[in-house]
Amino acid sequence: MSYSSNYGAPGVPAPPGTLYNTANSTSTYNGSSTAPPSSSTYGNGGSSYTSGTYKNSSSYNSSSYSSSSRYGNDRGVDRSYDDRSRRDRKEYDTRSSSYRDRSPTYDSYGGRDRYTSSSYRPGGSNSYSNDRMSNLGSGLVKQEWDFSKLHKFEKNFYREHPNVVSRSMIEVEEYRKFHDMKVFGRDIPKPVETFEEANFPAYVLKEVLDLGFKAPTPIQSQGWPMALSGRDVVGIAETGSGKTLAYCLPAIVHINAQPFLEPGDGPIVLILAPTRELAVQIQQECTKFGKSSKIKNTCVYGGVPKGPQSRELSQGVEICIATPGRLIDMLESRRTNLRRVTYLVLDEADRMLDMGFEPQIRKIVDQIRPDRQTLMWSATWPKEVKKLAEDYLHDFIQVNIGSLDLSASHNITQIVEVCAEYEKRAKLVKHLERIMDQKDNKTLIFTGTKRTADEITKYLRQDGWPALAIHGDKAQSERDWVLSEFRSGKSPIMVATDVASRGIGMIY
Ligand code: ADP
Ligand code: MG
């Protein structure tokens, strides 16, 4: 089976079960490259964490969010938040004086840590009994939650914009129908049709408008009010539809309304993603939009040394974007903890389950307080994802954009060829001859297994084709190198397992 694709779309999904995916891209492999970001922290000159000033007021204009205090020393003037903040902070004050005074090592707060080495083994669903995954997370202690001792937190920040209030349900239904949007659950807020209607704080709105975006994508227009209202949310929309911002902007609002991080605190927002590449893309968005609020983030993924990631974590970050395995590692070695997490995102949930992360996801989520807000995003809605949502989301509301059984992008022309096993290689070469005939074209070939990826690469190279392989068994440094060779066009054929599938449109 082969696909011929035109990569004009922002994100190009992996065709499920496809053996060869050849992509013909004459015009779009130029800008928008995602240079690997420097690590996440903002050099804000050692300034302390500024106070959140999100005013939970009932007025509708954007001044209900005070942005001024996010800058420099001009602390918030919003009394209501300050009072609340001070009140909440008392609970933390017993631990140490101020963030700046803190000892550099997290371990000095070890006395509070409940992640001891006694074993916690979740029920028998672990399918990784024969590899190192089976022990991963065995050092995590099952959490018991005493709600009377947990600090209170706010998660409902949504105030409907007057335009939205005045919109009739008939208009709302028309808008949803036009955007192929279906919603499920009780008390679902109406979609917003413009950025202004989402009632984001001015500093967030400015960042969005500066990017030149014209209007929210459908998943954003329905997803923002859902997420801002503090409910558990499931959002299903195809790759490239803007899901990242759908949860990132509400995450920033959420963080700004919480008390400061204190020494020894872990992140407030945890975003789980299946691959390093995706985690880095998410980090770039968080960095862009969190900048004005001095929100720090870090990205935690395997295949690279733990030291730098661990240092960033222990310095205190509001947002942690992580792949499941490395995060468990960090939790077990007490480099961070999830006690402050009140906003949990499972991004690319379907892909994470496809990649076998379910046991790890469950171990991680079991470490987070159950009254958190949980948001799950996915391109498809198979029964495994549904089960995960039912197990971990409470009274959730859901939005689906487009047809549920379509996981492929509508912006790609797909050509399916059915052939016998022995015909595949000859057909592949025939396609390559046609595609690579044109200057600057590139080809991505997806394979089902790492072994096939290596075999095809070898086969093509012997035949003189400039092919390189990328898959999960390759060291991270090699994966980076292969991606950069492909991106620059030095090696215009890349053979990949689905480690590179989601969000691949962003790598050019
Ligand atoms: P998904 O997670 O659904 O695959 P992404 O969040 O990665 O999609 O978004 C794909 C691209 O679309 C990104 O480059 C992002 O910056 C861009 N984008 C997001 N929101 C908008 C918008 N409202 N208007 C235009 N482009 C957008
Ligand atoms: Mg995404």
Automatic annotation (TrEMBL):
Query: What InterPro entries does UniProt report for this protein, alphabetically?
Result: DEAD/DEAH_box_helicase_dom (IPR011545), Helicase_ATP-bd (IPR014001), Helicase_C-like (IPR001650), P-loop_NTPase (IPR027417), RNA-helicase_DEAD-box_CS (IPR000629), RNA_helicase_DEAD_Q_motif (IPR014014)
**Polar residues composition-biased segments:** 19-37, 116-131
Which PROSITE patterns does this UniProt record tie to the protein? DEAD_ATP_HELICASE (PS00039), HELICASE_ATP_BIND_1 (PS51192), HELICASE_CTER (PS51194), Q_MOTIF (PS51195)
The first-level EC class reads: hydrolase
Q: What is its EC number?
A: 3.6.4.13
One Pfam family assigned to this protein is Helicase_C
Membrane-spanning parts = none
Its subcellular locations are: Nucleus
Output this protein's name.
RNA helicase
